[in-house]
Amino acid sequence: MRRYPLIKKTLQNGSYTIKFLKSGESGNTHLLTGKIRHTNQSPLIRTILRNRFEIVKLLGRGGSGDTYLALDLDLPGQPYCVVKHFQPKDSNPDALPISKRLFAREAEVLYQLGNNYDQIPRLFAHFNENENFYLVQEFIDGHDLTEELIVGQRLSEKTVFNLLKEILEILVFVHQHKIIHRDIKPQNLMRRHSDKKIVLIDFGSIKKMSAVGTNATIIIGTPGYMPSEQAKGKPKLCSDIYAVGMIGIQALTGLMPSQLQEDPNTEEIIWRDKAQVSDSLADVLDTMIRVRHSQRYHSAAEALEALTATQIISPSSQSTEPNTNTDDYLLLYKKFILLLGIGLGTITSLVLIVLIYTFMFTSTSLPNNPIQLKFKSFIEKFFDLTLVKTDIPIAKSPNNKRVCNSNCAIAEDINR
Ligand SMILES: Nc1ncnc2c1ncn2[C@@H]1O[C@H](COP(=O)(O)OP(=O)(O)OP(=O)(O)O)[C@@H](O)[C@H]1O
Ligand SMILES: [Mg+2]
């Protein structure tokens, strides 16, 4: 079990995300992201904000507020959108400005990134109404990755490779803007139904890196997907890489990060024996989740490059794929069907020949049956023609004339 004493305690209380806001003399301040509670007990349901966004349903309750599904009444067809209501759960007055800053930053980043990248939701509006802050964003019609990463179910290497590649491609874009997401986890990755692409959501934890690097900051993240430097308040771009690596390991092993043991000496996570994976992909994943951040890939671009190289170096790694096995079985099955067809065809022909022969020549048949007689004469003509044709090249040679004559005599015998 990874060592996050405070977080472990929180997990026992039923929450899965902790936002450690501040350390002070009076104690530490945390924001908790709990599981969805009483989803229909929200006073905002059916409220129309700005005379435009009608709240329909509660989607989730997070540390900074509630997230709702809403209708955009201004647009043709009144499409869905997502409304985030800023309502920090922490009663500590010190936490409020931090939460406010994070909420404002989420809007800023969605506006900056979402408008330019198809796999990040677009920002539609950001406003204050009756002393409440709201953020309206594009609704992603899909499901989150918790529905694909099922405990006890291992995904194939090829599926995991594609998953990692797609997440890293989004992160390359995010990291290019010097933004650390800080909360990469299955709940914040949605698979859009229309094109099956992954969309990264929840920019409520992001950190913008300053020109001089990242100073010590508040601690935000989710246990299991959060590396040690992030847990110490010093996140780096490669902290997001750690989270992606953990998602890959979760997919390959069918185990939650909290179910994995760590090496007591090195503190590295032990997972290889619980997965069917090629050495090349396992090496990339191990580099992604190194305890010491300096030993990890420094950015998403670097990790993506190493990941794609595994396909070039080790195409044989694909041989462990159940998909490849399925193809082999399909080919074998096709061959079997073909051979079976040929065999059955041959047997049917033989049976037919035997039946015809019996029909023609058995004593039980009538001697003057017209069909039988016609068939008999046809067979006789056929033999006759065949014999004459065979003789032509032989008869051309004067030495072979005798052979021709004798064969013709046989043919004449048959005709009589
Ligand atoms: N753009 C979106 N499209 C579809 N569903 C969304 C979208 N944004 C959020 N959701 C749904 O709402 C849930 C909660 O939203 P989100 O992850 O942004 O906030 P949170 O984790 O509850 O809060 P916090 O920002 O405080 O961490 C998500 O897990 C997802 O199911
Ligand atoms: Mg979230």
UniProtKB/TrEMBL annotation:
Name by which UniProt lists this protein: non-specific serine/threonine protein kinase
InterPro entries in the cross-refs: Kinase-like_dom_sf, Prot_kinase_dom, Protein_kinase_ATP_BS
UniProt enzyme class: transferase
Catalytic activity: L-threonyl-[protein] + ATP = O-phospho-L-threonyl-[protein] + ADP + H(+); L-seryl-[protein] + ATP = O-phospho-L-seryl-[protein] + ADP + H(+)
Alphabetized SUPFAM superfamilies for the sequence: Protein kinase-like (PK-like)
Domain of life: Bacteria
The keyword Transmembrane helix appears for this protein: yes
UniProt xrefs under PROSITE patterns: PROTEIN_KINASE_ATP, PROTEIN_KINASE_DOM
Organism: Dendronalium phyllosphericum CENA369
Cross-referenced SMART domains: S_TKc
GO molecular function ontology, one term from the record: ATP binding
Residue ranges of the TM segments: 336-360
Residues of the Protein kinase domain: 53-308
PANTHER family: SERINE/THREONINE PROTEIN KINASE (PTHR24363), SERINE_THREONINE KINASE LIKE DOMAIN CONTAINING 1 (PTHR24363:SF0)
Highest classification ranks of the organism: Bacteria, Bacillati, Cyanobacteriota, Cyanophyceae, Nostocales
EC number: 2.7.11.1
Record keywords, A-Z: ATP-binding, Kinase, Membrane, Nucleotide-binding, Serine/threonine-protein kinase, Transferase, Transmembrane, Transmembrane helix
UniProt-listed CDD domains: STKc_PknB_like
Pfam family, one: Pkinase
Keyword hit for ATP-binding: yes
Binding site for ATP: K84
